[in-house]
Amino acid sequence: MRTHTLLAATALASLIATPGLAQTAAPQNAPQGAQAASQQLEDIVVTAERRQETTQKTPIAITAFSGDTLQQRGVSSSTDLNNMVPGLAVGNNGSGSVQIAIRGIGSTNDTEVGDPAVAFNVDGVYMARSRAAIGALYDIDRIEVLRGPQGTLYGRNATAGSINVITKRPSDKFEGNASLDYGNYNNLQTSGMLNVPLTDTLAVRAAFQTSRHDGYTNNGRSSNFNDEDTQAGRLQVQLTPSETFKALLSVDIFHEGGVGYASAPIGQYAKFGSPYTYPVSADGSLNHTNKGVSLTTDWDLGFATLTYVGAYRTDTDHTHGGSTQSATCAAPSGALCASTIFRSDEDQMSHELRLANSDGPLKWVTGLYYFKENNDVLFALDPIAGITSLAFVQPVVTEESKAAFAQATYSLTDSLRVTGGLRYTEDNKARTGATEAFGHIVGNTYVGGSPLYLNDADLTWHSTNWKVGAEYDLAPDSLLYASIGTGYKAGGYGDGQPPNNNPYQPEKLTAYEVGVKNQFMDKKLQLNLTGFYYDYQDFQVSAIGQVAGQASTVTVNAGTAEVYGVEVEGAALLTQSDRVDGSVSYIHARYTDFVLATGDVFHPNSAAVYTGNTLAKSPEWTINLGYQHMWDLASGAMITARVDSVYVGDQNLDYRNFAVTEQKAYTKTNLSLAYDDADRRWRVMAYVRNLENNAVLVVANPDTNGSGNRLAGSGAYAPPRTYGVRVSANF
């Protein structure tokens, strides 16, 4: 504890902050170091509260990154955001889905019946399936990470927070860019953008990104797992026929191929020395496509602006994966294990209608929200000569959500404002399917086998969430705020038929937060402080369990949980050429009442008591520290060097807190060195990420087969050390 305190004090003394808090002062295509030339920190303009405000004037815990900062930090997918924000943990689960947690709150049920605890939105459109969050991040204007429940303004299940990705819109300027990145593991990434104003009222913007690299994992066969082979494209058309109306039509597609993902054996099963080397039963293949179309319109009515956001999306995932010597293996001594086939064909539609006014002493927004999702899922285990020993066949899986919401902020004085918000939500989830044995797979068609048991459900929940808050301007560049609000995430069900299909209740959260945001010394110094306390009821936890003797994802409600902590963020322009930034996060997250009266696979004959355990992915201390220096050359060119390092304390990745699922404290350091020409038309950047080459476990589960083995299991690791060179040009 003494060491941790010393680290925190040292970081605070260095005026730590979150990188990316102030990037908008530099030109759009300027390097990150150009910010220092203005000798002033400025905020990114965000829309976290459904109106335009800077981060320092937004009375919530929010961290924003500009598109230029994302490029500087090498962020090309959501998993690259891991540990870049206080309390944020992002990891791939080893099967293609993304698990996101904020302040120790997340969801590990990434099946078709689960919901994420962190809402992931792209241009205002909610992405229902967690695997959709793995899509490429390219041609991005900014990313906003909102910490804490967003129960009144954001549509679905945002109990832990929300990640809002905002892409760059078409503009009235002809411009373009292109980049090429090459590194180890034969990494090759390309991206580009072209913006064309066709008329005074019509503009088109097209962007793309491709990325591929060899697998990080040597599976001992002809191909390597955990590789990448992705292609993404986006086309936007913006129409502005008048000063009071504009419309944006956006079409995008993301495809992911390659060998695919695999979970690594851990504990007793990890007998091969390296977490990136282990045998797999068969070569895998991945075929995942996420695509959609959205329409956003804004109509200025004079007294308010009417906004509509409508979208239709599909997500198709056809994956063949080879199982590792982990929880699914009968013989951890070296024998090959079963492989799997997973197929999901999902579509979703959403509509949001908002009416808002941001002028005058009363600023308000009110709206309606509707969401509908359909899914057809097949998961087959042990495909031998086209015959499966076990298959989960769920041809009809639906979710429907309806909501009405309103929030208003009123200025009592020039310095004091109060806020109130309310949201009513109705959620319905239903499923019809079965768990079968001895079915047949012919080509791409599954022919049913013998049902072991049916999987049926039809459940509805209602919730009313609220928020009250106050904010006070201590000075022109100093904001004090406090709020109390609630969050809600819909319940669900497991395999089987009512009443024995393991229905679980919605989780409910009451959050208390107080914070202060400051800029000093003519905005050369920025320092923010946030304190929070969460009272959780019926917290949802998920893991692989047993249903009728078969492995199945089982979700249960923990009685109560308590989470509290402190976050410090800041930035300083030390000189015209030097910048320091970073953050410190302290989290205390515990289950205060968590008893499974009927036991579980690890406690077959008695109650399973997990009271007092830490919540998964809740390290007590996380410390970020970044330093940047730039050299102005006589020619007008510039060289920028940057180092970012993060310390993450001990954490457990599973609610049962077994030793096998623990990730010890680690550090991870990223380096970059960039050269920009005098006209800022092109850039060359060399980089190293994960300099220490640490193998960091980001997802882990103990072995739940049979009677349960708490000394072994499976997990997924973050990438090892990577390095490369990136060349980019603007025109």
Helix content: under 10%
How would you describe the shape? Answer: globular
Main pleated sheet: 22 strands, antiparallel, barrel
Mean pLDDT: 86
Q: If helices are DSSP runs of H or I spanning 4 or more residues, what is the number of helices?
A: 2
Q: Roughly how many Å is the radius of gyration? A: 25 Å
Question: How many runs of DSSP E, i.e. beta strands?
Answer: 41
Class from secondary-structure proportions: mainly beta
Question: Which regions are unreliable across 5 or more consecutive residues at pLDDT < 50?
Answer: 1-37, 325-336
Percent of residues in β-strands: over 45%
Distance between the termini: 52 Å
Explain briefly what this protein structure is.
By secondary structure, the protein is an all-beta fold. 2% of the residues lie in helices and 58% in strands.
Q: Topology, pairings included?
A:
Blueprint: H1 2-13, E1 45-46, E2 53-54, E3 62-66, H2 67-72, E4 88-92, E5 98-102, E6 105-106, E7 118-122, E8 125-126, E9 140-147, E10 161-167, E11 175-183, E12 187-197, E13 202-213, E14 228-242, E15 245-256, E16 264-267, E17 285-300, E18 305-322, E19 339-357, E20 362-384, E21 387-411, E22 416-437, E23 439-442, E24 445-447, E25 450-475, E26 478-489, E27 507-520, E28 525-547, E29 550-573, E30 578-593, E31 595-596, E32 608-609, E33 621-632, E34 638-648, E35 651-652, E36 662-663, E37 666-676, E38 682-689, E39 697-703, E40 709-717, E41 722-730
Parallel strand pairs: 7-10
Antiparallel strand pairs: 1-2, 3-9, 4-5, 5-6, 7-8, 9-10, 11-12, 11-41, 12-13, 13-14, 14-15, 15-17, 16-40, 17-18, 18-19, 19-20, 20-21, 21-22, 21-23, 22-25, 23-24, 25-26, 26-27, 27-28, 28-29, 29-30, 30-33, 31-32, 33-34, 34-37, 35-36, 37-38, 38-41, 39-40
